[in-house]
Design goal:
The protein is an alpha+beta fold. The protein has one domain (7-135). Helices cover 49% and strands 21% of the residues. The protein is built from four helices and six strands. The chain has helices spanning 7-47, 50-60, 76-81, 128-135; strands spanning 66-69, 74-75, 92-98, 102-108, 114-119, 123-124. Strands 2-1-3-4-5-6 form a six-stranded antiparallel β-sheet. A hairpin with a 3-residue loop joins strand 5 and strand 6. The radius of gyration is 24 Å and the shape is elongated. 13% of the residues are buried.
């Protein structure tokens, strides 16, 4: 009679569980690092718009509005303030004026991630929906 060995399949199953758990944690760390890297690069690109907006503000007494989206050929910011993001940057940037002394820039990636920052203070935009959910 053949003996049924249960320890070998259990050992293999245990090894598969441990490797799967380790791989999942490594992948989550990779995603977090990739997002943090995208965020930092995007903030630097957004910050690079500031001198162009300041120059426009000095001449016109207001900040410029418009969008820059190289992929879709939307270049109102480029034609208005002569600002362009780097050639390799696939993000869409949109500037909105807030009064006469501030503007916000929203950057949206191809996969739908977005960042918003108020300028010239470089503060994060207030996410009203998130704020309301935290307050409840």
């Amino acid at each position: 009679m053949a003996q049924i060995r249960i320890t070998e399949p259990l050992a293999i199953l245990g090894l598969i569980v441990v490797v799967s758990f380790a791989f999942t944690n490594v992948y989550r760390d990779y995603e977090a690092a990739e997002y943090a890297s995208w965020q930092q690069v995007t903030f630097r690109v957004m910050d690079s718009m500031l001198p162009f907006q300041e120059r426009f503000h000095l001449v016109h007494e207001r900040f410029a509005v418009g969008a820059f989206d190289r992929a879709n050929g939307e270049l109102t910011l480029a034609s208005t303030i002569d600002w362009r993001s780097s050639v390799t940057d696939p993000n869409r940037y949109v500037a909105h004026v807030i009064g006469n002394n501030a503007y916000k820039v929203i950057a949206t990636s191809e996969d739908g991630r977005s960042l918003c920052r108020l300028y010239p203070s470089k503060q994060p935009c207030l996410d009203l929906e998130d704020y309301l959910h935290r307050g409840l």
